[in-house]
Amino acid sequence: MKMKKYFITSLFVGTLLVASGLTAQKKNKDNVSDDLLRVKPKLVVGVVVDQMRYDYLTRFYDQFSDDGFKRLVEEGFNCKNNHFNYAPTSTGPGHTSVYTGTSPSVHGIIGNNWYDKETDTSVYCASDDTYSSVGTTANAGKMSPHRMTVTTITDELRLHTQMQGKTIAIALKDRGAVLPGGHTANAAYWFHGADEGKWITSTFYMDQLPKWVSDFNASGKAQSYKREWNTLRDISEYKESGTDNNLFEGKFDGENATSFPHKPAELLDKTKSFDIIKATPFGNSLTTDFAIEALKQERLGTDDITDFLAVSFSSTDYVGHMFGVNSKEIQDTYLRLDEDIARLFKALDKNVGEGEYTLFLTADHGAVEVPTYLKSEKIPSGYVDTAANKKRLNEFLQYKYGTVDIVKNYSNDQIFLDHKIVKNLDLSLAEVQVEIAQEVLGYDAIDRVYTANQMWSNNYTSGIPYILQNGYNQKRSGDVLIVLKPGYISYSSTGSTHGSPQIYDTHAPLLFYGKGVKAGSTINRTEIPDIAPTISALLGISFPNGTTGKPITEVLK
């Protein structure tokens, strides 16, 4: 009897223990699920500011409002030592690297344009003649991401949500929308200026524009930005930039001076080309207007399935190219962009909810100071005489090999050789690469030269060779890689440019903000391919399939 009573008691206690254990397990699982839900944002917003140097953030900081860049810095996480880990540093590779988590050596976008060895022609990073324009009869919509060989963070989010999460990508430049949107975007929109001033897309995404896009195009928004460009504030407050009228800046057609106010006929005439809007800060404002409309009309971030809004501000690049990084125009453009970012924040707070979204902001490349300005301050700099260098190289080729045709093309500071001619001349390709590299190294403004054989044979881990190797794609890149001296460019004598492996082109801002993000900063080196895996880790989804970057652990809660 005692034995029976003991057995029943033991069974009861055991059952209670098992039940409590199962309850604890269920609570643990519920806690994990709750934690994931607490971290998972309703919307991710990726912001790329074209040609934004890191020092713009610090130079103009005191004049920014509390609701734009300062909100990002003071409430978000600032990666102060963030760099592109490859060259060429240009828009196509930049946007692709941000969203794929890797560099051109893997994702294949080795420039905005490049010489294609298979077709013996120059190709554009986003062009695709197999698709047609939507929203215009012009060819400006014949685009797709087909040259990008890997997935993006936006693709992985779409796959993770069984294609239920939306991806919308927006930029003035087609490549600034097409490449971030990835292969699975619901839509990518870009601005077609010319005499139309419309947001357009490609049949890669859809057969006709949504009604809200057509309504926006008919609203007269673009026309409203065809107006005089004067400074946002009194120009006497613009102490963080050079004199207004100088020899280092370009100017609009029809203008006699480089100074404010800018009122060329093309900007004031609402019937003429809308492309000029791109080279004013109003292009960023138009982009913001359209992005906010997309946010509302597509109902992004309004349910528990995470959506993605990719926005690129392109006008900063056009202004930088025309006026240079030290111009009043650049300062005014960033003060106005600060207001646009504040407007975007306000719309996100209202439509998605403060604390319900995650946002990152970075650039697609930096920019060099105008060499003529640097020279005026006795800093070594200058311009490459490309025509003279080509003439000298042709003389060498004719003398050495009996033909100039051994060089097939010159693209993105790379020399492409005709491998068939090299073989027919019974020459060693590796030796020809070295001989041409040694010749070019002696030319003015050339800092160093590397060969494709070096890129194939070594595993560089630092410095310029590391940057070049990350930009070198074995199938698409050239035979000889050229690096100009710091401060030297192949460009006009006014305005700024980019593309090099030098630090002024690689150092770019990187700010994270919102749900799942710690407030703080780091001076540790981070790299552009780290962005996509960081967002993937925050969302708990797969990394893009070519990822070589690493999650920035300091960012994540």
Q: What does this 3D model show about the protein?
A:
The chain has helices at 2-39, 54-59, 69-75, 91-100, 104-107, 153-160, 175-181, 211-218, 221-224, 265-268, 282-297, 315-323, 328-353, 371-376, 386-401, 419-424, 429-441, 452-457, 463-471, 503-506, 531-539; strands at residues 43-49, 77-83, 113-116, 121-124, 133-134, 167-171, 187-192, 198-202, 307-313, 357-363, 382-383, 407-411, 414-417, 446-451, 480-484, 488-489, 510-514, 520-527. The strands form 4 sheets. A 10-stranded mixed β-sheet has the order 5-8-7-6-9-1-10-17-2-18, with helices on both faces. A 4-stranded antiparallel β-sheet has the order 12-13-15-14. The chain has a two-stranded antiparallel sheet with strand order 3-4. The longest helix is centred in the first third of the chain and has 38 residues, at 2-39. It folds into 2 domains: 51-353 and 507-555, Alkaline Phosphatase, subunit A (3-Layer(aba) Sandwich), CATH 3.40.720.10; 382-489, 2-Layer Sandwich (Gyrase A, domain 2), CATH 3.30.1360.150. It has 557 residues and is of the alpha/beta class.
Beta-strand fraction estimate? 15-25%
What global shape is seen? globular
The percent range for helix content is 25-40%
Do you know the CATH topology of the largest domain? Alkaline Phosphatase, subunit A
**Low-confidence region ranges:** 1-19, 29-34
Mean pLDDT: 94
- Count, helices: 21
Quick one: how many beta strands? Answer: 18
CATH class of the largest domain: Alpha Beta
Strand order of the largest sheet: 5-8-7-6-9-1-10-17-2-18
Structural class: alpha/beta
Number of domains: 2
